[in-house]
Each structure stands twice: as structure tokens, then as C-alpha cells.
Amino acid sequence: VKFEGGKLPSSIGGLIHLRFLCLRKAGVSHLPSSMRNLKLLLYLNLSVAIGEPVHVPNVLKEMIELRYLFLPLFMHDKTKLELGDLVNLEHFWFFSKQHSSVTNLLRMTKLRGLSVTLSKRYTFEALSSSLRQLGNLEMLYLDCSYKIYLGELDLDFIHLKELDLDFIHLKELGLGVRMSKIPDQHQFPPHLEHIDLFYCGIEEDPMPTLERLLYLKSVSLRSDAFVGRKMVCSKGGFPQLRALKIYKESELEEWIVEEGS
Questions:
Q1: Are strands 230-233 and 254-257 parallel, antiparallel or unpaired?
Q2: Exposed, middle or buried: residue 100 (CB in 10 Å: 0-12, 13-18, 19+)?
Q3: pLDDT for 104-155, tens place per residue?
């Protein structure tokens, strides 16, 4: 829906029993302060997807019932969001440039899903420390493609060895991180079922590593995840794989799938 002047009406604050509010792709640039009245919200999606920064008033800290929270990719520089006691959050999507105080994550011990768009190295380092406290994570996405797309990211921006991915409950992992080769098998979560790789620029065939992850059910390689010319799936690899998705791999010239893979 397109709202006049890009402003969500303040009357939204009168819906005090609202549990679900999704503004995905709504083109809203201003949110009213009356939203602080929506204290029973369980799900709030503010990924409004417009080209200009979004004005988000400091209304979240009292929404202590929230389970799902999606923040806009771009917010006004003066935006100061206090997350307060959102200790019940189970799924959280945010852009580190706009919410660099990732130490807030330390209190969100119930988080099962986390998606972070990283903008600077220091936020990655702080995030790495915070993640160690989130033992219940089942889904994790680390997305650096914003900087990669703008050509502002060095290959040394992130070393995955600094990030402990050994979450016992993690089932789904997404990495939009530049790396010439995929991490070793032992660096991945032991029961990983789904992996999504994008903008990685991997030069060395990732299949010899991925096919050893015994519980993998789906693999997605998209947006220049793998830029090599040859890929080999070995006999006995991928014992549980159900879906393999390869997008726009223009450099791929040879794909060998051995019998029994």
C-alpha cells in the first residue's frame, strides 16, 4: 500500500491488540510515535524497501512480547533505537551500520534466527563475541554483500576462522562473505541441514567439503558464490541432499557428478 507522503497513519497506534504488523515493501519512510502503544505485537516487519532512509521513532523498547523483528536496511542517521528488554525475541534481522550496538544480542538468549547485514569490520568482531552466547541459534545469516556490491570491501574484511560456527542446534546457515575457499568441514555446525552461499567469490571447488556434511539437505550457490570453472561431486557424497540450486554460474565449464553421489 502507498500511504500519502510515505507516512504510516498515527491511527495505527489505536490497534492496541495487534499481534502482527508487516510493512514489507510498503514504501513507508516515516513511522509514527504512536506505534509505542502496540505493546502486544509478536511480529513486526519494518523492511519497507525504499531508496531513502526510514524514520523510526524509539518505540521498540516497550514491545517486550516481540518474537520476530525485522529492521529497515537504512534508517536516518539520528535514529536511536533502544531495544530495552526484548529478551523474548526469537528471530532478529538488522543492518549493523544502523544498529552497531550488537552487545544487545547478549540478552537475547532465546534467539533462534539471526540475520545481520555487516558494514564494518569492528561490528563483525563484536558480533563474533556476542554470538558465542546464543546457544539456541537454529538459523544464522551473515551478509556482507552490501559492501561487496559497492566495491568497498577488501578480501581480508572477514576471516571466518575468527567466527565460531560450531552451534550445536544450527540447521540453516547463509554466508555472503568473500573467501577464496570454503572453510574446512570441522568449522561448520555438526548438524547443518541448509547452506546458502552468495557473493563469496569462491575459487576452489566447494563440493569436496560440502559433500562431507552428512546432514545437508539443501545447498544454494547464487550471485557469484563460486567463480571456479570445474566442480566435482564424488561417489558417496551428500547422503541426504534433496536440493541443489546453482544461479548464474557463468564461469562453470565442467561439472562431474560421479555415480552414487
A1: parallel
A2: middle
A3: 676 788 889 998 887 665 456 667 777 777 888 899 998 877 665 555 554 4
Helix (H, G, I), strand (E, B) or coil at 94: strand
Buried b (16+ CB within 10 A) or exposed e, 25-34: ebebbebbeb
* Alpha-carbon gap, residue 108 to 91, rounded angstroms: 10
* Residues 6 or more apart whose Cβ sits within 8 Å of residue 122: 100
Q: Taken in order 171, 177, 183, 187, is the CA torsion positive or negative? A: negative
Secondary-structure percent of the chain, ordered helix, strand, coil, rounded to 5:
15, 20, 60
Place of cell 532512509: 53
Euclidean distance between CA atoms 80 and 243, whole angstroms: 42
- The mean pLDDT value for 178-184 works out to 86
Rounded to the nearest integer, the mean pLDDT of the chain is 83
Sorted by where each starts, the structural domains of the chain and their CATH numbers stand as 4-257 (3.80.10)
Q: Which three cell numbers stand for residue 189?
A: 555446525
In whole angstroms, give the CA distance from residue 71 to residue 79: 12
CB within 8 A of 248, min separation 6: which ones? Answer: 222, 223, 224
Q: Which residues pair with 163 in a beta bridge?
A: none
pLDDT at 54: 86
* Cell output for 95: 543492518
Output the nine-digit C-alpha cell for 19. 499481534
Is the pTM value of this prediction over 0.90?
A: no
End-to-end CA gap in the chain: 48
Q: Which residue has the cell 561431486?
A: 233
